[in-house]
Specification:
Blueprint: H1 2-13, H2 16-30, H3 36-67, E1 74-77, H4 79-91, E2 97-102, E3 110-113, H5 114-131, E4 138-149, E5 152-161, H6 189-192
Parallel strand pairs: 2-4
Antiparallel strand pairs: 1-3, 4-5
Helix pairs in contact: 1-3, 2-3, 4-5
Length: about 190
């Protein structure tokens, strides 16, 4: 499956750059040779092609990321520190949204892949911020805690928000690939998580 996905992504991605370059070249070549009305149409069409190519590239990259077997680089990770680091990156973008962090000081460093944990946290916080778009008094909260389980101590992270939430019929499938209620995005964020 991984090999098929990589080849498919490669085959889709290969023609995208020439399509984008050809559209831009056509616009440059013809823009001054056509009427003002046609030039405006050419600009809009070129802009649409370039935007859609970029969107396809993003989807192909997300698909490749989802299909790729993780090459884990396991080491000691200060999970609380990583949570604070990720949330701090979103603070400047989160205009009108309160970002809260509550960490459990009992959590010792985890044996994990820091890059993959960062990706999980990025996807969850980004989803939370998208969920509260347009919500009054919006907030996204990230909490870590240490819990006891049958197999020993476990680290738990909870990302919550006061957004619109998932539709009931989607709840059982939110971690499946390509399941999304958003107009933007690939539906792979939670599947990767």
């Amino acid at each position: 499956w991984g090999e098929v996905a990589r080849r498919l992504a490669h085959e889709i991605k290969n023609p995208l750059t020439p399509i984008q370059l050809a559209a831009e070249r056509l616009n440059r070549r013809l823009h001054d040779r056509v009427s003002v009305e046609d030039a405006a149409l050419l600009d809009r069409a070129t802009h649409t092609i370039v935007q859609q190519v970029e969107s396809l590239k993003g989807m192909v990259n997300a698909f490749s990321e989802y299909a790729r077997a993780p090459d884990l680089k396991v080491g000691r990770v200060d999970f609380n520190g990583l949570v604070n680091e990720v949330v701090d990156l979103y603070r400047s973008q989160a205009v009108g949204v309160t970002l809260r962090v509550e960490t459990d000081s009992r959590l010792e460093p985890l044996l994990a892949d820091r890059g993959r944990l960062r990706q999980v946290l990025n996807n969850l916080v980004a989803n939370g911020l998208e969920a509260v778009d347009g919500v009054q008094d919006a907030w996204v909260a990230v909490e870590t805690r240490l819990e006891q389980a049958d197999r020993g101590d476990v680290a738990v992270v909870t990302v919550s928000d006061n957004g619109h939430g998932f539709q009931k019929e989607m709840l059982a499938r939110v971690f499946d690939p390509y399941v999304t209620s958003k107009t933007k995005g690939t539906g792979l964020g939670l599947a990767i998580v």
